[in-house]
Amino acid sequence: MTSRRLTPADCIAALPEPELDLPPGLQDDVRAIDLRHAALVIAELDHAAEIAQVLAADESR
Amino acid sequence: MAFPIRRAGLIVGTFFALTGCSADGQNVTVGTSLPEGTYDAVVTWAGGQIQTQIVVGPTESGSALPFLLLAVALIGLIALAYLVVVVPRRRRQAYEQALAQLDAGEFRRALPELTRLETRLPGKLRTEARFFIAFALFQIDALDEADYRLSALRRENPADASVCYLLAYLRFTRRDHEGAESVLDTAMADGLLTGRKMRRLYAVVKFQRAAEAVSDGRLDAAADLFGKVERLGELTDRIPADLRNRHLALGTQSLFDKDVPAARAHFESLRTTALEPAQLASVHFGLALAEWLDPSPDAPQRIEQLLTESARLLDPGGELSADWPATVATSAAENLATLTGERDVVLRNIHFLRGMAAVRAGDLTAAVGRFARARAHDPEFSDVHLVVGLIKYRLGDVEEGVTLLLHAQKLGVREPELRRIIASHQQPVARYLDVLDSYANDSAVLTEVRTALTGLARFRKPRDWDTRPDLPATHTAPTIADLGDRSAVLRERVTELLAAGADLGAARDLADDLGRDTAALVASARALQRKEAELLTLLGAALLPENGGLPR
What we know:
Number of strands of chain B: 4
Number of strands of chain A: 0
Largest sheet of chain B: 4 strands, antiparallel
Protein name (chain A): FXSXX-COOH protein
Structural class of chain B: mainly alpha
Mean pLDDT of chain A: 86
Low-confidence stretches of chain B: 1-23, 457-475
Oligomer: heterodimer
Order of helices and strands of chain A: HHHH
CATH class of the domain at 84-274 in chain B: Mainly Alpha
Distance between the termini of chain A: 90 Å
Organism (chain A): Lentzea rhizosphaerae
Order of helices and strands of chain B: HEEEEHHHHHHHHHHHHHHHHHHHHHH
Largest sheet of chain A: none
Low-confidence stretches of chain A: none
């Protein structure tokens, strides 16, 4: 028999600390909406657009 | 004095119902008094009869009554002591033994005893036992029953912090974030969110809810939820900087929706607000993007001004322009030192957009200086090698331009224009080796094909020892377009080698076969897609009511 009886607070203390558990898709959603990470998507800059802009700039010289 | 025969019946301890008896040949009924004396009697009852003697003594000899009362009182006292002292003590011992089992993690063993004792314990202990039962149920994954019991306990005593915590924790564990949030919102309103553990759980639950809101496109709600997480002082480093602020989140959403006036309004509303530097940097970045999407007459200057301000807030001493480094290859040590973190990615994007703004304005020289700053924050950012390679190539620095484009290709760029430029500046054999290299490294190529090529691998180009490893290999099956492209490149190489005078008649035949097979494959793929479309149309017409099909 234990010298000190178990209390509800002991039970709570024994539980592991809750951790954030975002599924990968959800993590990507959160990151994708962050302005500073999504800047190039917002600006519609992908490889094709970048090449087109460089060619346009060169041709207009 | 007569002795009531009913009492005599009780004294002899009969437990059956005495329905009557006969004495001296007379029938007497229950309650009849008899004079002193000895009587032969026959006691009859429903199930039979017996003969006996009944002695009715004088009044003086009836002193059995006080003894009888004393005996009854004693028995009563003993029973009372048993009920008041012994039974509770035994229950308590059993209860404490069950708690010891609970403490030792023997939840399945403790549970039956706790359940048996639950209703027999006094008030406070009973409530406590119900909590322990719920706790044991939670531990053995009987979550529905644990939730039911904890909900009942919470209704009875909403101020019990342990019950609130366990109920919210249980719901969080089973990913019922909304249910957990509801418990914790009430606990917050009741002033129960005092401990760090409770605050942590609340923050984790709110963060999950915020992420769900982002996923559902409810950025307004997400910003509120992230704001609450921040106020709780937990997980603050995990909150995306731009989502901590409602206007920043909504401004970003407006940019995604291409609603530039709304985006401007959100960002402008924050310009005069006291914000931390990272958030203020995002305000400027957001306004620059709005200008990029909907340029005003002085857009180049305005974009540069906003992006420069944004960069200075994040990197106060950072240069705004730099010379493009003479060589592409970077040492392993340099790459390790500059592996991009959160801040570097943001600064890379800012400088890259500055560079693209200069390209758009036609100032390619200024653009290269800005791209050099983007590269400094992320040496392996393929876009910057692509764009600078193309600029240098178009400005006449063909050798460096092609080298940069090759590096961009190595980093994953697959644009036809890039392939065309590279192909036009390589020797036929070198270009054949490139194809061989790409086959041997492409996990989408069949293993047996790659194995067959291993004998040629010794001719492949050596890899620079100090470049970073290739991008993680992808293990996706090649698309029809991939197969078509690969086949076209390979056939083109054969044509170049033949043109260079190589004696490769068999290769020409095989290349012709490959060309025919590729064309047949592409034609089959197109026929397949047409059939799929036909089937979908047929199903749509049959199933959808607006097309005259069956109602649901």
